[in-house]
Design a protein that fits this description.
- There is one protein chain.
- With 66 residues, the protein is of the alpha+beta class.
- It has one domain.
- The chain contains two helices and five strands.
- The protein has a three-stranded antiparallel beta sheet with strand order 3-4-5.
- It is globular.
- The mean pLDDT is 93.
C-alpha cells in the first residue's frame, strides 16, 4: 500500500471531532494559530503530516501528528 494511502487511513481512523481540533490548531508564520485548508495527508517516519494552506492568508502550513 502506498505511503499516502496508509497515512489517509490512519488520519481517517482518528475520530472526526478530534481531527477537527487538529485542523483548527495549526501554526502559520504570518498569522499565528490558524486553520489548515485544502490539505493533503502524507506520512514520514510513521507520523501523519497535513500539508495545506492557512485559512487566513493562504500561506503554506503543515501539521505533524505523531
Amino acid at each position: 500500500m502506498p505511503n499516502d494511502e496508509l497515512a489517509k487511513r490512519r488520519w481517517l481512523a482518528i475520530p472526526s471531532d478530534f481531527r477537527k481540533k487538529l485542523e483548527n490548531n495549526v501554526f502559520c508564520s504570518n498569522c499565528g494559530e490558524t486553520t489548515i485548508v485544502d490539505y493533503e495527508v502524507d506520512s514520514v517516519n510513521h507520523d501523519i503530516i497535513l500539508k495545506g494552506y492557512c485559512k487566513k492568508c493562504n500561506g503554506e502550513v503543515a501539521r505533524v501528528i505523531n
